[in-house]
Amino acid sequence: MNPKTDLKLVFSLIVVGLVWGTTYLGIRVAVETIPPWYITSIRQGIAALLVLSLLLYRKQLSWIGWNNLKFQLIPSMLMIVIANGFTTIAEQTVTSGLTSIMSALSPIVIFLGSIAFGLQKPSLKGFVGVILGFLGVVFIFRNGLEDLLDPNYKTGMLFLGIAILSWSAGTIYSKKHAHQSSNIALNLFYQFGISSLVQVVLAVLLSPRTSVSAWSTRSIGAVLYLAVFGSVVAFFCYYYALKRVSAVQVSILNYVNTIIAVFLGWLLLDEVITYDLVIATALIISGVFIINYRKK
């Protein structure tokens, strides 16, 4: 290993790859008995309190100013409220494995978005990678087009598509403005706090008659896991990495997430792994790898 290797960066990338790979399973378990917006609002609320405790302990809690608040508001809405919230809704009708496979397309979306906004130049290998990713999606639906006739499944896939686009936009924006503040914990506190307030309003409006007594211990445990590891730990590592490498490079961790999520879905939730899903996963991962491959 190069002596100048940033070990904190390597650790952060490993944590993001492993933890976010398990969150698809956690979300699937949580939605078994808890309405989606309650899951996300509680998850981000707990995360905000944990980060607040850390800031108070370090005596770093402070007002970030209206200008920086604006920069924190946008990724909070795009990546946490919309992307995380809509993914949670989608997993009511879409398996955790399929959700992770579709979410693995985000690096390709980020690549195309970076070209559209002049942040990256188009290339032949990039085009090949996009084609492979598209073929992966084709394989997912090759023998399952009739599933789209199911309104619940179709709605789930629609929410998932919006989540992917929103996450990709948030990642590009965050990378562009990563220099705005060096205090990741302080930024995350505001992001989690803002998103939790928005999501609790949505929870009350969209699920007004929910019964807390119907929430299972298993689902509540999943929400706690999502809050501590899926939000606080993983997001902290994600933003640390995003300050040091490109948005596209960080996004390739999605294929690590995918492999972990598909395996855990099969192992713990008895989700079926078909040949089409295996081929789709291989095509999407290959496409992402080709887009991001650098000899150096």
Give your account of this protein's structure.
This protein has 296 residues and is mainly α. The model has no long low-confidence stretch (mean pLDDT 84). 76% of the residues lie in helices and 0% in strands. The chain is built from twelve helices and no strands.
Structure characteristics:
globular; mainly alpha
In short:
With 296 residues, this protein is an all-alpha fold.
Write the topology of this structure.
Layout: H1 7-30, H2 36-58, H3 65-90, H4 96-103, H5 106-116, H6 124-141, H7 151-176, H8 184-206, H9 217-242, H10 247-251, H11 254-269, H12 275-292
Low-confidence stretches: none
Alpha-carbon Rg, integer: 19 Å
Number of beta strands = 0
Structural class: mainly alpha
Strand-residue proportion: under 5%
What would the average pLDDT be, to the nearest integer?
Answer: 84
